[in-house]
Amino acid sequence: MPKRITVNHLNIIRKLNAYAESAKVDRLSRGKRIYNFNSNGVKRVFFIIEGDFFLRSSETGKIIKVISAPFVIGAMPSLEPLSVYIEVIDYGKIKSIDYNYFWSLVNYQELLPDAMTVMSEYHTDLIKFINGYNESNEEHVRTLVDRWKYHPCHIKKKISLLFFITNSTFMSKSTAARIIKRMKETRCINLKDGRLVVDEN
């Protein structure tokens, strides 16, 4: 995430953190904490304070985005409950606030420019996610690799590239592995123990 957008997330969290509460876990799946955007009929906005999370589709379980603190998510208006959920990767501190209360505070605290930038990021991510399904398998893998490069180093060390791709697409494991192998052989990517190695300099 660009540093300028990180500042927008931080501004919102710092000014509204006192109004939020520790997010209630909706369920556990494979030992992972799951948080729904609609809980008991209440629409929630989440503040990712610490740690890393997957944003997954409720319909398919596929990864839509990897979220790392600081991050505000759930502020986008919607006519129906969002068919996505948040799953903690291994550690995370997350708070929540009622959606309507969030927007009243955004207006009161004059945080609208920050909130609009955050929502623009949501929209951009959504378009990228949709466009990915119009690509060939190889193009889609290359797109995901480019996206994966910009995630924090500790995430890339923790999760294999093959896991990320097969959990973000409907591609078979063998197809994804074959494309990754070809990219490695042609030196398009550098892998160590299946993890993507990126020069951070």
Helix content: 40-55%
- pLDDT averaged residue by residue: 92
Reported by name, the CATH topology of the largest domain is Jelly Rolls
Q: Which regions are unreliable across 5 or more consecutive residues at pLDDT < 50?
A: none
Number of strands: 10
For the record, what CATH class of the largest domain applies? Answer: Mainly Beta
- SS content category: alpha+beta
The number of helical runs is 7
Would you identify the CATH architecture of the largest domain? Sandwich
Q: Number of domains in the coordinates?
A: 2
**Major β-sheet, in short?**
8 strands, antiparallel
Radius of gyration: 18 Å
* H-E order: HEEEEEEEEHHHHHHEE
Percent of residues in beta strands? 25-35%
**First-residue to last-residue Cα separation:** 17 Å
Identify the CATH homologous superfamily of the largest domain: Jelly Rolls
Query: How would you describe the shape?
Result: elongated
Quick recap of the structure?
This protein is an alpha+beta fold and 201 residues long. It has 7 helices and 10 strands. It is elongated, with a radius of gyration of 18 Å.
Word description of this protein:
The protein contains seven helices and ten strands. By secondary structure, it is of the alpha+beta class. The protein folds into two domains: 3-128, Jelly Rolls (Sandwich); 137-196. The strands form two sheets. Strands 1, 2, 3, 4, 5, 6, 7 and 8 form an eight-stranded antiparallel sheet that branches. A two-stranded antiparallel sheet has the order 9-10. Strand 9 (191-192) and strand 10 (195-196) form a beta hairpin. The longest helix has 21 residues, at 112-132. It starts with a helix and ends in a 5-residue tail after the last strand. The model has no long low-confidence stretch (mean pLDDT 92).
